Amino acid sequence: MQQLDDYMFTYTKVKVVRASKRLGLIRAWLMTTRHSTAPILTYLDSYCECTGGWLEPLLDRITRNSTTFVCLRIDFINGSTLRYDWSSSEYIVASPGVLTLFSNLSLR
């Protein structure tokens, strides 16, 4: 853990926050909101890989209306062929836990 702290020390806008016990993903996200000073928070799981230009459309919608809840359209890599499949669906993929997290962000 010290190696991570030493590495992240060079990034002055990044703070490593650790829980005293295991919390689970959603509770950990909520814990970090209490330490954040940023006006907009973005959470990505470790397995997410972003393509170029993914953030700008999200920020655009939020800056137009600060009460907007924005969820990514998720593309997939086919597990059998490793082919990149972009999502042409108009549906949003979100778990109930993520929706609960965003509905409770007033805790901050």
Automatic annotation (TrEMBL):
Supply the alphabetized keyword list. Answer: Disulfide bond
* GO annotations of cellular component type: Golgi apparatus
Q: What is this protein called?
A: Glycosyltransferase 2-like domain-containing protein
Source organism per entry reads Timema douglasi
Q: What is the lineage of its organism?
A: Eukaryota, Metazoa, Ecdysozoa, Arthropoda, Hexapoda
- Please report the stretch or stretches of sequence annotated as the Glycosyltransferase 2-like domain: 3-89
Q: Which Gene3D superfamilies match?
A: Spore Coat Polysaccharide Biosynthesis Protein SpsA, Chain A
* GO BP: any one term: protein O-linked glycosylation
Report a single Gene Ontology molecular function. Answer: polypeptide N-acetylgalactosaminyltransferase activity
